[in-house]
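Sync notes, pocket subgroup
Present: LS, DG
LS reminded everyone that the earlier model was apo-only. Rerun requested with heme C included. Inputs:
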Amino acid sequence: MKLRSSLLTAVGSTALAAGCQGNPFPDPPVHIIQNMDFQQRYEAQERNDLFEDGRAMRRPVEGTVARGEVHLKENDHLYRGRGPDGRLVDALPSNIVDSAALLARGEERFNIYCSPCHDKAATGHGIATTRGGGFQVQPASLHQDRLRAMPLGYFFDVITNGKGTMLSYAAQIPAEDRWAIAAWVRTLQTHGKTKGWDETTGMTTVAAAEPAAENGAQKDG
Ligand code: HEC
């Protein structure tokens, strides 16, 4: 008897559950604990006739500074790579000192952010270009004559705003580091040729020579 009733319950509840499936129900589901889930408020982009322009979203008062913005980024040279005449500059901003430390930082950041596509010698044969079918537009070799002739601010500008299919790196790389990278790009451009960097493979004779020397040293030891 007991078995029979539990069997019946099982069959009954299965039938009930199956019966509900696929049937549209016009009311929202029962929401027992309300908390503050339903409130009278405006959604983004919603209309609001209270204001003359009919928009619920209000514009910030002129001159508003977002929380966390320590300065207004008014320094055009530092934040946009441009001088007072609006043209790209070919010099570091005054607060960034041209030093070995700057180049070391630039090299490190370049190898993290740029070399996956442009490779460490900046010839455009980074590891990402050999994976997943490669790129439709190849990362540029930064040793092209056209780019060699570009002012330092140009590289800052490309990192900041992207170029063609290359995206902006402004969100990942702070402005000061973008200058360090630009300085490193210039260093690669000026010294790349003399170091024997091969523009077709992206391999450096320097990089190739190092492991061999290490092995030799190990054998000697
Ligand atoms: C995800 C791959 C990728 C990364 C990472 C990347 N680039 Fe590029 N870059 C490209 C591609 C692709 C192009 C060519 C874009 C085009 O011509 O449409 C390019 C072009 C360039 C150019 C040439 C712009 C011109 O005038 O033709 C410069 C300069 C450059 N990149 C610098 C950098 C620097 C510096 C970094 C590191 C902060 C970097 N890129 C990171 C893919 C990348």
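DG: Residues 202-221 have pLDDT under 50 and may be disordered.
LS: The two ends are 88 Å apart (CA to CA).
Action: DG to write up.
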